[in-house]
Predict the 3D structure of the following.
Amino acid sequence: MDDTTDKLRGPDGTGATEISARLAELIRTEIAAAGGLLPFDRFMDLVLYAPGLGYYVAGAIKLGRDGDFVTAPEISPLFGRCLAVQCAEVLERLGGGVLLELGAGTGTLAVEVLKTLEHRDTLPDRYLILEPSPDLQERQQSLIRERIPHLAERCAWLTRLPRRLRGVVLANEVLDAMPVHRFNIRDDGGINEVFVTERAGAFLEVTAPARSPGLAEAVGALQAVGFAQVPGYGSEINLRLPPWMKALSGALDAGLVLLVDYGYPRPAYYQPDRTMGTLMCHLRHQAHDDPYTHIGLQDITAHVDFTAIAGAGVAAGFDLAGFTTQASFLIGCGIDRILSEAPDAFDLTPGAKQLLLPTIMGERFKVMGLTKGINGALCGFSIRDLSGRL
């Protein structure tokens, strides 16, 4: 680890090397408590979210030039302006309400959505941000006070889901960072689980018959419909989705949950030639597939199975309002009109291309809408609804 990385990532004077070492020791303790085999989803949970030590909570610079990756709100303000159009449509149908953003990153999306809704005279009663990272909360608050100080009092930060919401829940690149179980298929057709163990001070993965509750059953359900059957095939599965979606449904009385992430419908997710799954790590804008290095200092993600999202949502009481590509969603929200009317349209054009081009973000990222108590089609899914592919 270079000195620059250590300086960038040291919260409260604590350097990255020390934070990483502490986190590694915590993981070793959990491996020992688990009898030497720690389920991968627990390893991923600790690496990303261990209090005070995990990647998302330890004060690391994650987004932008000095971070590890860039998300759509940082690429172009057009992204937030388009999401605001969809939010406005729902708020108008509800006769008002609140917005809740899950994991607000730098706060850039919140700023752009609020500015646009103010311009449209459709401001929410409150803009709530559920953010588990104290460091990110401070950065978000600072940006909002700097960019839209007159709207700062309308914002509030939470560490758990509220109750009895009416409005819109925004989740941009949230689901890809949800811990997943990993599995592979044995030569005899049985289901192995990926575990993390330690040897000579290093973390590495081993496989053993599935033991995490529900994993063998969930993979068996995939096999029953033709997926994950070939010996040697390996992938991921998110067992946390159903309880997460149930909690979200319990929090939202009426409105829209808008999910934006990279992923596939199930037939593409578990296609036979994707034999190693989709797990990916990001460090300094470089992608690689080794989650056992740079402990706590790199992002670990898995693509989203949008069929699983839709199934968990409907089971939790939501209606599937639509599923489409990011490009189609943004076009449905009027990105061409928004761009043409912007005084700085020329400067915004390169960012618009990144959001829309199929080879960059336009087709790789998908958008799903789940609703409760909302009647009628939504503008974001009016151009091209791919729900039939789920």
